[in-house]
Design brief:
Elements (H helix, E strand, L loop, with lengths): L8 H5 L1 H11 L4 H5 L5 E3 L15 E15 L6 E8 L4 E8 L2 H10 L5 E11 L2 E5 L2 E4 L3 H6 L9 E3 L8 H14 L9 H6 L5 H9 L7 H28 L13 H8 L6 H15 L5 E6 L5 H13 L4 E5 L3 H23 L2 E3 L5 H13 L4 E4 L13 E7 L6 H8 L6 E6 L5 H7 L4 E5 L9 E7 L6 H14 L3 E5 L30 H9 L9 E4 L5 H12 L5 E4 L12 E6 L7 H8 L9 E7 L6 H11 L3 H12 L1 H4 L20 H17 L7 H10 L2 H8 L2
Parallel strand pairs: 4-6, 9-14, 9-15, 10-12, 10-13, 11-12, 13-14, 16-21, 17-19, 17-20, 18-19, 20-21
Antiparallel strand pairs: 1-8, 2-3, 2-5, 3-4, 5-6, 5-7
Length: about 725
């Protein structure tokens, strides 16, 4: 039977194996199975370092049997086989349970000393010994049998696949073998001239070599070929998405002389920065074009992106168009409502009627807000995921603004756009994005950057408080806090968790991040609040807590009280990470700062120093000097340049996290491509894809590339990429 890449796995491997592959990896067709590449290769003579195995993880290793014995169970029926395997330096035990001693002795004969094989299981510890409990395994031929075969057989690399407890690496290899045997012609996604000029394998040969290499030298050319396929496919998919948007016809939203935008600009008590003016002009031009705007605006924390977005909202309102701003949290949505209403002023706010719509509003409030939106009475709508609800409708949605794009996916952006007729889209992020990541994640968007900061800000100083070297500095942090409060300023103290005693979740609903040793956070909001309640210098200051598990009304009340200056010290989770604007807040204390990413630390720091008072950020950490966690913290303390930090972050995080690699071997669009190492390839692929689309916008002359895009880059994949 001959297979194509889109042949259902039920036909190719049978219903049972197909069901297992679907459950484990979400695979349904042959192309997805053959796109599940080995993560590494082992040689029969290679042994895996046992001392380096991570406790608690499912791993596959190559090792040699040292000893094995069988014995009856002492306190219950049955028997067990205990096997010791080694890499020549370290040892680990394997434990197998059997119904009777005979079965246990059979396994002793099979796992005799000197035999080598692949062993897979969950790494555990028992009596201070590394252990696999009832692992899966496959033994290599014993020495005599191997010598009877060609010696070269023992040098053939063994593919080790991403696996799960339900299906082991060698089981995947056994399934893939017959599928490769039956695979028919594989169409080439690359133009033939490009394939030859780049000295690449054919698609069919690349798949054969990556899954069944006959020697080590087969592997690298296969990976290089498939990596080019991946880069071109992704860039072509993003350009295809951009072309699809550009083919839509949008309503021109022009600002008129003496209109709302001109009136709004006249009320501003300050001048726009050069970058705000430049980006504003780009957006204004986009809004008058015949195709929908699709623009990403990158801007430093506090650079005035919200003002740029608001000017676009006011411009579309001139023709009766509505703008919807979606924010990741209720706290941020509420903050946007207040700041936008304030900026519009008494004259324009009643006319544009900014309206808040969130999931935690009471039913009567939500109905009232939804009616304003549906009738077109409200021209500026601000909300959370509630805006995506089927019940939320607009009279004339003209502009979608996505705040903090890294919290949303492409799917959500497009779901909101679908509520209008080809509305314009403006995507904001205060997380600076390295060029290759922007090209890979946001390749369907035009990009603008706001680097200059508004005048009149006193700036921020950042210091690391390294408790590993200076434990006494912990007390100094709180003395410094008391000094700021005594001077009339306000202070944030941020923790990675809500309540460490309950192993609670943080404000975004994710598990508190472990440190490099796998330990959970020491300080939660609850624990820090309890400590500071008895602190001699802070027990009498006005304190409050804020986190994502609090009721919506309570969160909003606390944030407004802090904004009014009625709270001196706010102990919070990262719910205050973005958009919170309190000019009198001068100090940001981040507990266990090593638990946060570079961009998150930079975002949190941006909450202070937004007014006339100098900002102070103290990064409290117990991470040892020289550790990656400490490097991350020190990097943030060393510079205020978010774009520089984005490059540092990329280097420190390495490849695995950059685009949010999926867990447990689940399918991801980026299988071989690495945005750091393959930066030049990504740029080249972008140029090639652009050249192809300039001559063939619908890919009619490149059917294989079009088919590869449809097969390899799903909407879910694009959404996954967009969430980073």
């Amino acid at each position: 039977m001959s297979f194509e890449l889109d042949t259902p796995l039920t036909q190719a491997v049978g219903a049972t194996s197909a069901r297992t592959l679907d459950r484990a990896f979400g695979m349904t067709v042959v192309g997805e199975l053959l796109g599940h590449y080995p993560r590494r290769y082992a040689d029969p003579g290679e042994l895996t370092p046992i001392r380096e195995l991570p406790i608690g993880e499912t791993v596959t290793i190559v090792a040699e049997v040292v000893s094995s014995n069988a014995r009856a169970m002492k306190n219950r029926r049955g028997a067990m086989t205990e096997v010791v395997i080694s890499d020549g330096i370290g040892r680990m035990s394997l434990t197998f349970f059997a119904k009777n001693l005979g079965q246990a002795e059979w396994r002793v004969k099979e796992l005799s000393p000197g035999r080598r094989g692949i062993f897979s299981g969950k790494v555990g510890m028992f009596r201070e010994t590394v252990q696999f409990a009832h692992p899966e395994y496959e033994l290599f031929d014993d020495l005599d049998a191997a010598q009877r075969r060609a010696d070269s057989r023992r040098s053939v690399p063994i593919p080790i696949y991403p696996a799960t407890s339900a299906i082991q690496s060698w089981q995947i290899a056994k399934i893939i073998g017959p599928v490769l045997d039956g695979l028919g012609e594989v169409s080439e996604p690359l133009p033939e001239t490009l394939r030859l000029s780049e000295d690449l394998l054919t698609a069919r040969e690349a798949l054969e070599r990556i899954h069944r290499p006959q020697q080590r030298g087969d592997i690298e050319p296969a990976i290089r070929t498939l990596r080019v396929h991946e880069a071109l496919t992704l860039q072509a998919a993003l350009l295809q998405q951009r072309e699809q948007v550009r083919r839509l016809t949008a309503t021109s939203r022009e600002a008129k002389p003496g209109g709302l935008l001109e009136r709004f600009d006249a009320t501003l008590p300050f001048s726009l920065t050069d970058d705000q003016r430049l980006v504003g002009a780009e957006i204004a031009a986009d809004l008058t074009a015949e195709r929908p705007m699709n623009r990403l605006v990158q801007g430093e924390v506090g650079s005035g992106k919200t003002l740029v977005a608001l000017r676009a909202m006011v411009q579309v309102a001139e023709s009766g168009g509505q703008a919807a701003l979606i924010a990741p949290t209720e706290v941020l949505a509420g903050q946007h409502l207040r700041s936008i209403t304030r900026m519009l002023g008494r004259d324009l706010a009643p006319q544009l009627m900014p309206t808040l719509l969130t999931g935690q509003m009471s039913a009567p409030e939500r109905r009232k807000a939804a009616l304003r939106v549906a009738s077109g009475q409200s021209l500026i709508v601000i909300g959370t995921h509630a805006l995506l609800s089927e019940k939320t409708t607009f009279a004339d949605l003209a502009l979608v603004v996505v705040d903090e794009q890294h919290r949303f996916g492409v799917e959500q952006r497009e779901a909101l756009r679908a509520k209008g007729t080809a509305p314009h889209a403006l995507v904001l992020t205060a997380t600076p994005i390295p060029r290759t990541v922007a090209m890979t994640v946001f390749g369907d968007l035009d990009t603008s950057v706001i680097r200059t900061m508004p005048s009149g800000r006193a700036g921020i100083q950042t210091f690391t408080a390294p408790l590993a070297e200076h434990p006494a500095w912990f007390q100094r942090v709180w003395t410094r806090t008391a000094e700021e409060i005594a001077a009339g300023r306000q202070v944030f103290a941020v923790c990675a968790a809500i309540d460490t005693a309950k192993e609670s979740v943080d404000s975004d609903g994710a598990a508190p991040p472990p440190d490099e040793e796998g330990k959970g956070p020491k300080w939660g909001v609850v624990q820090l609040a309890e400590l500071l309640a008895t602190h001699p210098e802070l027990s009498k200051v006005r304190r409050a807590v804020l986190h994502g598990k609090m009721p919506s009304e309570e969160k909003d009340a606390v944030m407004q009280a802090f904004a009014r200056g009625e709270i001196d010290l706010l102990i919070a989770t990262t719910v205050i990470e973005v958009g919170v604007d309190v000019p009198n807040a001068s100090t940001m204390i981040i507990m266990e700062a090593d638990r946060f990413g570079v961009s998150q630390l930079h975002q949190l720091r941006g909450r202070v120093g937004r007014g006339e008072h100098p900002g102070l950020c103290l990064l409290v950490t117990e991470a040892e000097a020289g550790s990656i966690a400490r490097e991350r913290v020190d990097a943030v303390a060393a510079t205020l340049d978010g774009f520089e930090l984005a490059e540092v972050d990329l280097e420190l995080r390495g490849e695995g996290d950059v685009l949010g690699a999926t867990q447990s071997g689940a399918r991801s669009s980026l299988r071989l491509l690495r945005v750091v190492k393959d930066a030049d390839l990504i740029v080249r692929a972008r140029e090639i894809a652009a050249s192809i689309f300039s001559e063939d916008p619908t890919l009619e002359k490149h059917p294989a590339l079009r088919a590869t895009i449809e097969r390899r880059v799903t909407d879910a994949d694009r959404a996954a990429l967009g969430k980073n």
